[in-house]
Structure formats: structure tokens, C-alpha cells
């Protein structure tokens, strides 16, 4: 019988305490523990951005076109969280059990609503809303959030390129959408603040949150 070179390796048959998928990454020079930590931080950033974009979108009052594009970015950030989180578990890791810890670990700054005093503005009740927010200030927050995401996923692509094809594929797909988001908000902020056209080359998705690179099918939501 011909040799089967891939039939066995360092992980013994039936051993469920180790993962050949991890072994192969380590063999190729990936620090898997470090990668898991970076993915957890990145997932935290996508999750918290989804939350903050919900608020920012609401306050783009009177700018329905801006709201629509913000909604695309918001839902796609959720898709990014949904895409990358299973990879953390495949690598043998976990996201924090406490959402407060998870939010604190986010790899990007909180995208606070302008005028909310970095989220610390006192509220007498849930109707005590911020009433004077300018669209250009919100667009700047959105733009800087996307730029942080681009830096994050570029780093993960660099770490995994040619070594961890699965994580690289996911990170690359997320990165492509974050680059598009940056271009959208440059276009909107440039015209809103300066009256200068800097076209993004794209208007909006076919459906809100279409996520053409990162979401292969709709979420299961019965």
C-alpha cells in the first residue's frame, strides 16, 4: 500500500484536546495565541461599532440618504462580527463571557455620538436626547471608525497572508468592505462640510447590509 503522508501527524488519533488546524498554522510560523487575541479585539470593535452606528444613524435626522448609507455600514459591521467570531472558536479560543469586558477589549475607540460627552452625558430619562448634532460631525465619527477598521484588518491580513488561508480569506473580505465604507464617508463628509466632490465610485447596496464580500447568505432570524 502506498504511503499516506497526511494520515497522521503530531496530533494523535482520537485526541480532542488539540487541533490539526492549529498545528498546521504553528508549523507555518503563526503565533496562534496572539492571533486569537487580535481576532477577539477586532470582533469586539465590529460588535461595538454596530451598536454605536445604530445611534449615529438615528441622529442623521433629515438626511435620509446619509441614513441609508450609514445603515449599510452598520449592518455590514454586524456581518463582520458574525463572520469572524466562529473562527475564534475554530482556533480554540472564545470571546469574553461578559459583554462589558468584550466592549472594553474592542480594538478601536468607541464611536460616540457628538454632543454626548463621550457617552457620559447625564440623562434624566430615556427621552433626554441630544438635540443639536450636525451631520458633518457624525460623518467624521463614522469615517474615523472605518479607518481604524482598515488598519485592524490590514494587520490581520499581513499576519495570516500565505500562512493561514482561512483567516486571511475572512479578513480580506472584511477589509474590502471597510475600504468601501471609508470611501462612502469621505464622499459624504467632503460634500457636507466643504462642498467638494470626492466621489466614492459607489452609491449604495442593492439591499441594506448586503455585505457582498463578507455575508454569503442572510442571517437565520425566524
Find the CATH superfamily of the domain at 25-113 and 131-194: Ferritin, core subunit, four-helix bundle
Radius of gyration: 20 Å
Task: Report strand %.
Answer: under 5%
* Portion in helices: 55-70%
CATH topology of the domain at 25-113 and 131-194: Ferritin
Task: Describe the main β-sheet briefly.
Answer: none
Number of strands: 0
User: Structural class given helices, strands, pairing?
Assistant: mainly alpha
- The helix tally amounts to 6
Specify the CATH class of the domain at 25-113 and 131-194: Mainly Alpha
Order of helices and strands: HHHHHH
Mean pLDDT: 91
Shape by Cα distribution: elongated
Span of the ends, CA to CA: 51 Å
Second-tier CATH architecture of the domain at 25-113 and 131-194: Up-down Bundle
- Uncertain segments: none
Tag the structure with descriptive keywords.
single chain, 222 residues, mainly alpha, Ferritin, 6 helices, 56% helix, elongated
Brief overview, please?
The chain is mostly helical. The protein contains 6 helices and no strands.
Any overview of this molecule?
The chain is mainly α. The chain has a domain at 25-113 and 131-194: Ferritin. It is 56% helix and 0% strand. It has helices at residues 20-27, 32-58, 64-90, 99-105, 135-160, 165-194. The longest helix is centred in the C-terminal third of the chain and has 30 residues, at 165-194. The N and C termini lie far apart (51 Å). The relative contact order is 0.15.
Amino acid at each position: 500500500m502506498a504511503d499516506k503522508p497526511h494520515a497522521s501527524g503530531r496530533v494523535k488519533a482520537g485526541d480532542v484536546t488539540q487541533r490539526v488546524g492549529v498545528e498546521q498554522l504553528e508549523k507555518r510560523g503563526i503565533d496562534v495565541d496572539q492571533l486569537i487575541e487580535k481576532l477577539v479585539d477586532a470582533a469586539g470593535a465590529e460588535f461595538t461599532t454596530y451598536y454605536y452606528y445604530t445611534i449615529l444613524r438615528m441622529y442623521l435626522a433629515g438626511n435620509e440618504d446619509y441614513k441609508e448609507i450609514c445603515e449599510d455600514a452598520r449592518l455590514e459591521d454586524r456581518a463582520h462580527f458574525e463572520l469572524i467570531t466562529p473562527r475564534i472558536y475554530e482556533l480554540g479560543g472564545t470571546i469574553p463571557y461578559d459583554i462589558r469586558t468584550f466592549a472594553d477589549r474592542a480594538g478601536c475607540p468607541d464611536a460616540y455620538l457628538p454632543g454626548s460627552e463621550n457617552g457620559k452625558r447625564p440623562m434624566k430619562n430615556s427621552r433626554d436626547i441630544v438635540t443639536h448634532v450636525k451631520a458633518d460631525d457624525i460623518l467624521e465619527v463614522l469615517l474615523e471608525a472605518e479607518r481604524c477598521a482598515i488598519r485592524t484588518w490590514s494587520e490581520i491580513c499581513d499576519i495570516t497572508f500565505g500562512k493561514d488561508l482561512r483567516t486571511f480569506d475572512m479578513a480580506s473580505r472584511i477589509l474590502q468592505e471597510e475600504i468601501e465604507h471609508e470611501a462612502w464617508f469621505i464622499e459624504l463628509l467632503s460634500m457636507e462640510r466643504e462642498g467638494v466632490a470626492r466621489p466614492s465610485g459607489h452609491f449604495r447596496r442593492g439591499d441594506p447590509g448586503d455585505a457582498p464580500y463578507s455575508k454569503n447568505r442572510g442571517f437565520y432570524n425566524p
